[in-house]
Specification:
Elements: E1 2-6, H1 13-26, E2 32-35, E3 40-44, H2 47-56, E4 62-63
Antiparallel strand pairs: 1-3, 1-4, 2-3
Helix pairs in contact: 1-2
C-alpha cells in the first residue's frame, strides 16, 4: 500500500532527515520518497503507522491524493 502525505511543517533538510529516520524505524525496509519543495512524503507500507511515526517526530502529516 502506498501512503502519500503533505507535511507542510517539513521545511528543511534536517526536517527531511528526521521524517525519514522516523519512518525507517516504524516501517523497516519501506521505500520512502520525500519531495521537500512540495512537502510530499510517499511511503510504501501501513498508512496509519507512517502517519503516527511522522506525528511522533513532531510534524503534522495530512493525507494527500496520489
Amino acid at each position: 500500500m502506498t501512503a502519500i502525505f503533505t507535511v507542510t511543517d517539513m521545511t528543511c533538510g534536517h526536517c527531511e532527515k528526521t521524517v525519514r529516520a522516523a519512518l525507517a524505524e516504524a516501517l523497516p525496509g519501506a521505500a520512502v520518497t520525500i519531495d521537500l519543495p512540495s512537502h510530499k512524503v510517499t511511503v510504501e507500507g501501513d498508512k496509519a503507522k507512517a502517519e503516527e511515526a511522522i506525528r511522533e517526530a513532531g510534524y503534522t502529516p495530512e493525507a494527500a491524493a496520489a
